[in-house]
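hiii, so i know i said id send this last week but things got crazy w the move. better late than never?? heres the sequnce for the chain we talked about at the cafe, plus the structure i predicted for it. fair warning i was half asleep when i ran it
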Amino acid sequence: MDIPAVMSCRSPECIRQFLPQSMNLPKQDNTAYEKSLRWLITAFRNFNLTLQDSIEDLEARKICMWLVARADTAAGKYVNEYIWLMEFDESGEKITSMKEYVDTVMQRDFFPKLRDSIIQANKN
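okay and structure toks below
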């Protein structure tokens, strides 16, 4: 994953919000988002995102994407679905807002195992 390339697509004020809100995950500014990407590249191998469907509204500068992610991890196979809602600046080049609907079962069941496997690996 080319983190500088990913970050270059985001406006300075871009915020990532996880949904549904019932998960109580904090919003991420660019600093927090980049930190999470750096953590993810240590946790995932063979990470792949596949676009399943998308809806674009060029006039409103918005896109909605249904994505499936697959990767190998120390905690086992990772398969997750996302819905990303992104808004862009007037140039259409920078993301100003990103709402990410995540698979709540995966978030609840898999990520604690993944976190534990990373902590264990760092102890060795």
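btw The mean pLDDT is 92. thought thatd interest u
miss u guys!!
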